[in-house]
Amino acid sequence: MSATTRTRTPGPRHYLMCRPTHFDVTYAINPWMDPAKPVDTGLAVAQWESLRDLYLSLGHTVEFIEPVPGLPDMVYAANGATVVDGKVLGARFRNAERAAEGPAYLDWFRDRGFEVHDPAHINEGEGDFLVTGRYVLAGHGFRSSRDGHAEAQEFFGRPVIGLELTDPAYYHLDTALAVLDDDEVMYNPAAFAPGSRAVLERLFPGAVLATPRDAAVFGLNAVSDGYHVVLPEAATGLAGQLRARGFHPIGAGLTELLKGGGSVKCCTLELRGPR
């Protein structure tokens, strides 16, 4: 059955989120951050609440981790860990400004009885680890290390496919690629090294390809339940492509959180249970 005729079925998801109570841009560790631009924290909270309410309206389960003062980027929960088959690989951040987030997230999981692994190597959670039905796709080039990829493969027991990012505007894999279903993805070819593009073409020959315009509005920082695809509302071209393939795109407005270099997916950590 082709991608254009496949029947899409949403599946219930379990997410972890962190309210942006302390969100601000006081340092710059990616090209999207500019401390000179004012941030409206109240607007950031309101936009985040709309995303949370959307997930709940779609029937998904959402849990919350308490925000920590002094960690303005903790709202980007996807970076806090990677959860596969009920096992939690903690995050170890490259930048000192975010280093304390890793232990905070790991403590949340440990307190709830998850099997956790405190990583020895740099990985920034689902910022650079995206899970398909068969693989863990793993970004490197700006944040997570290749040693972290090997550590993830050993812990999860799943093939980890390394993909090199080359454009600093797309510094995490989840800014350049999104998983739509077990065996379908969408991505920005221009964000990857030639060899990594060739790997993606081989693994996902029918992938949705983002235009530079849709990539630039963080259209690939999206969350899918197999039918509903929540993505930045400005990514209208991607929305049209998704609709043509039987998905139901839903635009979200997270413009304030984009000032920190994150959008829908960055705010959403999926808690995948055992299969």
From TrEMBL:
SUPFAM superfamilies: Pentein. This is Amidinotransferase. It comes from Streptomyces rimosus subsp. rimosus.
